[in-house]
Amino acid sequence: MSSFSAPPLRRVLSHVLLGLAAAVLILPVWFALVASTYNGADFLAGRVGLWFGAHGADTYKAVITGHGTIAMALPNIGQALITSTIMALLITIGKIAISLPSAFAVTYFQFPLRGFWFAVIFVTLLLPIEVRIVPTFQVAANFHLLNSFTGLTLPLIASATATFLFRQTFLSIPEELTEAARLDGASPLRFFIDIIIPMSRTSIAALTVILFIYGWNQYLWPLLITTKTSWSTIVMVIGRLSQTAAEGDPVWNYTMATALLALVPPVFVVVAMQRLFVRGLTEMEK
Amino acid sequence: MIAKRVTFKRTGLPLALLAPQLAVTGIFFLWPTFVALKQSLYRSDAFGLRQVFTGLENYRALLFHGNYLATLERSGFFAGCVTVLSLAVGLVLAVMADSLGRSGRIWQALLVWPYALAPAVAGVLWAYMFDPAIGPITHALAHIGIDWNHVLNSGEAMTLIVMAAAMKQVAYNFLFYLAALQAIPKSLMEAAALDAAGPVRRLFSLIIPLIAPTTLFLLVVDLTYAFFDTFGLIDSTTYGGPGNSTTIMVYQVYKDGFIDQRFGPAAAQSMILLLLVGALTMVQFTLVERRIDY
């Protein structure tokens, strides 16, 4: 630590301004929380204030079970939460499961066209879903992937970033280990499973945090690949709810409750696993 | 390309290890891109029964007729505003947190969590606060004589999506700036303070030049985010309106290709987006290569 520090008055000012910024960032969440404790009649009558109303339990019960005044028009959010959880986990596991072997192959083997295959993986960075939206949907539809977990996740699990990150991790593993493994007569796969994967566990954990957030927050692809409301993810229903609310239907309470339920899991992951999160984020950009 | 000095010499095994990644890439990335490229050179008739080869006609129509140029300009304006706003706020907050040393760290969790917000979620939270009929901020603004209505006023609609989009990048930029500032040798800051350089002067003549590589890197990341990751944000706040005033490129390609099923023009837009990601990615990689030297 340094002996250098700002004068006391300036320190107080810094704390105050940082606190103010933190308050501005949390303000939208506070308003959402308050709004979710009123009912539709309160909104129509202009009774929604800056403090909690009396209908919070009703709102969340209606939203999670789908048995509220909006049940006919909107999906069951409890079910959407389950769909989102499974989707996020499948994307996370899928990306890691296909990127670890790819990184192992391009780092530890000499084989024909190695650079070319590596470049092919790299190209996915240039092709976010927004760039190839219509034909990707057509391909997925031809494979009958609409309304399925395969459709929600498989087209998203190619990952250049994860492959690069694992390659970086592998490059920092001492060469002596490979030599020792070879002298012991261990096969490449044994070496991969017994040595490389355990030595990469911090990178895997850090990446898991980032990829879970990435998977959970998907919006456009679930919107295209699901045509039945029973397959809705919680993030993608927000667009529809928001539109209904903006058109003047008194559903802001349900909309805000849904938005809060959609933000709690990824925000919890960031706050609870802050060290891993920061590590994952900074490593991914190297 | 860098590899291990000690390697295994096999052909079948590494290809088998690569196969799942390459299969997903080929089927869901490369093939659709090829199809988009092909579609961009054709025009479908009204019933979608016949495709006529038209060469670069779709591109010409986009760039010289209709409203696509306006969409490009609007997307650039939106991305520029989001980037400048989130870089400036992120830097100021990071400088303050850094000057507090250890006790500044308590603010990290409270400023970084918005990174976890899906753009659609951030969007709907802001849409509620500023809802013309019942938004709490709208009410507060009415008290000071501002009649906020982003459903009718295109400037206010753009302001709303810029603020909502910046929320997430402020968190990201803060984190990277803080790391960069902590890497500056404290002796440099002390020397500047002894030379009686005030905090503002230190910021402009010492800190900003020293962290320029981080700024360049964040600039590219923020622009990429604003251009490509904000579909959900638009789709939960302004839906591209009023008129087309918040229809940015990714929203227009969705409307043309998916809602209106105009495959040719949508495919041509896809190719333009591809060029843009390509350019941004190349700049990013050049920067990362250079960053290693710092």
Note poorly predicted spans of chain A.
Answer: none
Largest interface: A-B, 112 and 107 residues
> What is the CATH topology assignment of chain B?
MetI-like fold
Oligomeric state of shown chains: heterodimer
How would you describe the shape of chain B? globular
- Termini separation of chain B comes to 21 Å
Portion of residues in beta strands of chain B equals under 5%
Number of domains of chain B: 1
* Helix vs. strand class of chain B: mainly alpha
Task: Count every beta strand of chain B, where a strand is a DSSP E run of 2 or more residues.
Answer: 3
By CATH, the superfamily of chain B comes out as MetI-like
Rounded mean pLDDT score of chain A: 88
The outline of chain A comes out as: globular
The total of helices of chain B stands at: 13
Reading the helices and strands of chain A in chain order gives HHHHEHHHHHHHHHHH
Number of domains of chain A: 1
Helix/strand/pairing class of chain A, anyone? Answer: mainly alpha
Taking strands numbered 1, 2, ... along the chain, how are they ordered across the largest sheet of chain B?
Answer: 2-3
